[in-house]
Amino acid sequence: MPIRPPDPFKQRSKKEVAETENGEPRSARKAVPDPSAQRRFPRYPLDVRVSAKVFRADAAIELWGRSIEFGQDGIGVTLTGELQPGEVATLELTLPGNPIPLKLRGLVRYCDGLRHGFEFLARDEIQREQIRRTCELLSVGR
């Protein structure tokens, strides 16, 4: 007796729907690692405009977006395009209370669609102090 594929027009029970997601059994889903479990410093919600410039072999690209969260060692940003983990970008953003834009180098640590996590690289003392003060200000609002 041949095995038939499932009928796509058959009504599924609530239990069958609950046990699957996107047509796959829940047990087949891949767990997405929680980046916050690996952080040295807390992140705080922050919504500011961010530009990201990356120099690639074929051409330099410039993306822009909005920050999601901010911490002493990095930033979460939604960008207008995708970057690859391991790429280094020049980030430019204006922090609350600072009229002068902050320019930093950031390493792409993860990419989930258009959402990116950056780890700050090589900050000078002035940049570290601006970031620390901003985190202190953001922590008061929690």
User: What is the fold named in CATH at topology level?
Assistant: Thrombin, subunit H
CATH first level? Mainly Beta
Annotation field: number of helices: 2
| Main pleated-sheet profile | 6 strands, antiparallel, barrel
Walk me through the structure.
With 142 residues, the protein is mainly β. The chain has one domain: Thrombin, subunit H, CATH 2.40.10. It contains 2 helices and 9 strands, in the order αβββββββββα. The protein has helices spanning 14-18, 125-140, and strands spanning 20-21, 24-25, 43-45, 49-55, 60-71, 74-79, 88-93, 102-112, 115-121. The chain has a 6-stranded antiparallel barrel with strand order 4-5-6-9-8-7. A two-stranded antiparallel sheet has the order 1-2. The chain is globular, with a radius of gyration of 21 Å. The chain starts with 13 loop residues before the first helix and ends with a helix. Mean pLDDT is 83; it is low at 25-32.
Provide tags for this entry:
Thrombin, subunit H, 142 residues, two-stranded antiparallel sheet, 15% helix, mainly beta
Write the layout of secondary structure elements.
Blueprint: H1 14-18, E1 20-21, E2 24-25, E3 43-45, E4 49-55, E5 60-71, E6 74-79, E7 88-93, E8 102-112, E9 115-121, H2 125-140
Antiparallel strand pairs: 1-2, 3-5, 4-5, 4-7, 5-6, 6-9, 7-8, 8-9
